[in-house]
Amino acid sequence: MPLKTVIRPMLAWECATSRLTGAVNTAVRRSDGWEGYNTDVWGAATALRRQWGTTFSSAILLGAGATASSLVVSLRDLGVTSLVVVARDLSRTHDIQKLGRELGIDVRTAHFGESHESADIVVSSLPATAMLTPETLGKLNAAALFDVVYEPWPSALGREWERRGLESISGLHMLLWQAVRQARVFYGESVDEPLPNEELVVTAMRAAVGL
């Protein structure tokens, strides 16, 4: 999603997470200009915590775009110290590798279809239109899957995890929680403080999208 980076020069202020990831997904008009926020990091980390209630030490990340940088920070927040970034063009992974090293993560890279060790979780930032061959799917080994795709669902990855009898969640979980963070940006005193009746709102949101 290129607009996550294109918008940055237009902002008067950015949150620390936006500066770290280089990605902005929420902009708010204030009296002195536009403020930029990244709610994806917290949204993804919260979705994974709520689903699995645990931390991870290793992960496989598919893709290297603007969303991928946010996912790297989310994975760090969940305890990941070992990361394999899988991409078709490894030259596009340079920023992800740099970010990972800054966060204290051991980052390695691999082309799609290459063999690499298994991990605790596979996290995909690929679009719904991405074509993954059976060979590529067979090289991805982890007990858990988080795929940012939510329409259609299950994705090709989601179907593969269902076939294996393993647990997966779609990007709808991340979408919900980043929206909660956005609501705090728009209406709250602090993004770190829950809004009044926030859990009731989350329950209603879950029901609305079928989670």
TrEMBL record:
GO terms for cellular component: cytosol. Signal peptide: none annotated. One of its GO terms (molecular function) is shikimate 3-dehydrogenase (NADP+) activity. GO terms for biological process: chorismate biosynthetic process; shikimate metabolic process. SUPFAM superfamilies: Aminoacid dehydrogenase-like, N-terminal domain, NAD(P)-binding Rossmann-fold domains. InterPro entries: Aminoacid_DH-like_N_sf, NAD(P)-bd_dom_sf, Shikimate_DH_fam. CDD domains: NAD_bind_Shikimate_DH. PANTHER family: BIFUNCTIONAL 3-DEHYDROQUINATE DEHYDRATASE_SHIKIMATE DEHYDROGENASE, CHLOROPLASTIC, SHIKIMATE DEHYDROGENASE. This is Unannotated protein.
